[in-house]
UniProtKB/TrEMBL annotation:
Pfam families noted in UniProt: DUF416, Imm10
Lineage summary: Bacteria, Pseudomonadati, Pseudomonadota, Gammaproteobacteria, Lysobacterales
Protein name as catalogued: DUF416 family protein
């Protein structure tokens, strides 16, 4: 980045050279780093509507992928997302401002979809750096009146990491032949979104997710059990997830916990019953949050994130059956 110019001026200059779709991808990647901050706020405060914020950002991704929604639907998604923004007067959580920034950044992108105003994308990127700015002030004890305030925040590893991510995304987006699903999936993975988004310290090795692109999806409901499978390859998978539940259980099964959803990755030695905390079904991904016992049973350090093609012919059935299983076990399912 050239020095001596405001960050917003630099970002705007870079975006002017991109087409509308590429601009939107850049803004959406910024927002993906902000959404985990909202989750941290919701967990910390006990208030929030992450599903609304997630759905709003998924509207943006749908537009990127050529599945544009009607203007009225976009306006409605933006309104619901804005209502999910917490008031700083009502909460003391350290993440309250970051949660606001997440909501407002997503709303800015929806405004761009409707208005094609490039400054809305610049605004979304600015919300990402603003979140880091205030977080650093509050956690590192930087005094507001410190004459070195701006310089200290700029040098902070969190701010440097966010700026590096934005610059790296811009370069990759500018160089890519097309904004394909594979390219976008790679950019999301490279960013390495942590549990608290761009507020996670870059020097800390945060828990890695078990991630893959599910090119093959299968559902089997034979009456005795429901089996849902996601794999990176139909015939020779290197990564896969099987979710299943028996429909015929007795008291002994219940006493042993075998009446719960069973989850397996790769081989039978990496499996277990229960342990699913929450499931998110987004436009192009499924995220399965696990407790520590389930992570240990599956021999992974983080949650499961499966990238999916919304056009896959079996995806709708798979999501529907997965939602039913979650409802039966009392597992929150956000779609």
């Amino acid at each position: 980045m050239a020095s001596g110019r405001p960050r917003t001026t630099y970002i705007r200059e870079q975006l002017v050279a991109l087409d509308s779709g590429r601009r939107l991808v850049f803004g959406a990647l910024c927002c993906e780093r902000l959404l985990p901050n909202y989750i941290s706020f919701q967990r910390n405060s006990g208030w929030g509507d992450f599903a609304a914020v997630r759905k709003a950002l998924d509207c943006v991704w749908a537009h990127v992928y050529g599945n544009a929604q009607q203007a009225a639907e976009i306006v409605d998604a933006s309104s619901v997302c804005e209502l999910a923004a917490p008031s700083s007067d009502d909460f003391t959580s350290i993440y309250v401002t970051a949660a606001q920034d997440a909501c407002f950044a997503v709303c800015s992108l929806l405004d761009y979809v409707l208005e094609n105003d490039i400054d809305k994308i610049v605004q979304a990127a600015t919300y990402a750096t603003d979140s880091v700015d205030l977080f650093v002030q509050e956690t590192d004890g930087v005094e507001p009146g410190d004459p070195e305030l701006e310089a200290k925040i700029l040098r902070h590893p969190l701010m440097q990491k966010e700026l590096e991510r934005q610059d790296s995304d811009l370069e990759a987006i500018r160089s890519a032949q097309a904004m394909s699903r594979d390219f976008i999936g790679e950019r999301k993975a490279i960013n390495g979104y942590g549990e608290i988004g761009n507020l996670s310290h870059p020097m800390i090795n945060t828990a890695a997710k078990y991630q893959f692109n599910a090119h093959h999806i299968a559902v089997d409901t034979d009456g005795s059990a429901v089996v849902i499978g996601f794999a990176d390859n139909e015939f020779s998978p290197s990564r896969f997830v099987l979710v299943q539940k028996s429909m015929k259980v007795d008291e002994r099964d219940r006493a042993m916990g075998f009446d719960k959803v069973h989850i397996q990755i790769e081989d039978q030695s990496r499996s277990g019953y229960g342990g699913i905390v929450e499931v998110w079904a987004g436009h192009d991904r499924l995220t399965v949050l696990l407790d520590q016992a389930a992570r240990a049973a599956l021999k992974i350090d983080g949650d499961i994130e499966i990238s999916v093609d919304p056009r896959h012919p079996v995806l709708g059935d798979a999501v529907l059956e997965l939602k039913k299983l979650c409802e039966e076990d009392g597992i929150p399912f956000l779609d």
